[in-house]
């Protein structure tokens, strides 16, 4: 009999459900980032405990956040005046002054001026010190570091 006429379960014809992709590289986090990851795990665990029939997507999300919590590496305190993970950087880019926080991948929120340490702008600045000028986007001296200091504790909450 032709395969076209056999009725197998619908499950075998569905696309496989893949895990959520993990960002490449180490999972370096700020203290705030670690708290956010742990909070996300707690919220998802409570949601699944309240309704064990939650969709597979919620369970997949919990596996993602559990993995992120298990692999999190707390960034060392940044050196004073040097750009690093956990640093607030005040800089000039193409004549416009900006301030950003350099954070871990899961904490990144460009709309809130938090960029992940793997972002090209962060990569261009990490290791620089106040007063340095840096190349960016194939333009020499595109970035001028005006100030770099640890993200204040009150903003880390």
What key phrases describe this protein's structure?
alpha/beta; elongated; about 160 residues; two-stranded parallel ribbon; Chitinase A, domain 3
Please characterize this protein's 3D structure:
The chain is of the alpha/beta class. The protein folds into two domains: 26-74; 87-151, Roll (Chitinase A, domain 3). The chain is 29% helix and 24% strand. The protein is built from four helices and seven strands, in the order βααββββαββα. Strands 5-4-3-7-6 form a five-stranded mixed beta sheet. A hairpin with a 2-residue loop joins strand 3 and strand 4 (96-103). Helix 1 packs antiparallel against helix 2. The longest helix is centred in the N-terminal third of the chain and has 20 residues, at 31-50. The radius of gyration is 22 Å and the shape is elongated. The model has no long low-confidence stretch (mean pLDDT 87).
């Amino acid at each position: 009999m032709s395969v076209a006429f056999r009725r197998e379960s619908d499950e075998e014809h569905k696309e496989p459900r893949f895990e959520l992709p993990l960002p490449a590289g180490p999972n370096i986090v700020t203290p705030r980032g670690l708290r956010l990851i742990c909070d996300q795990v707690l919220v998802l665990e409570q949601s699944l405990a309240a309704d064990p029939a939650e969709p597979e997507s919620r369970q997949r999300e919990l596996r993602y956040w559990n993995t992120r919590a298990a692999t999190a590496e707390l960034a060392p305190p940044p050196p004073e005046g040097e750009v690093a993970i956990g640093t607030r950087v005040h800089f000039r880019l193409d004549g416009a002054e900006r301030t950003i926080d350099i954070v871990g991948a899961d904490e990144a929120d460009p709309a809130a001026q938090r960029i992940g340490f793997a972002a090209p702008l962060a990569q261009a600045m990490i290791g620089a010190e106040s007063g340095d000028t840096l190349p960016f986007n194939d333009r020499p001296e595109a970035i001028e570091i005006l100030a770099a200091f640890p993200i204040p504790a009150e903003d880390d909450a």
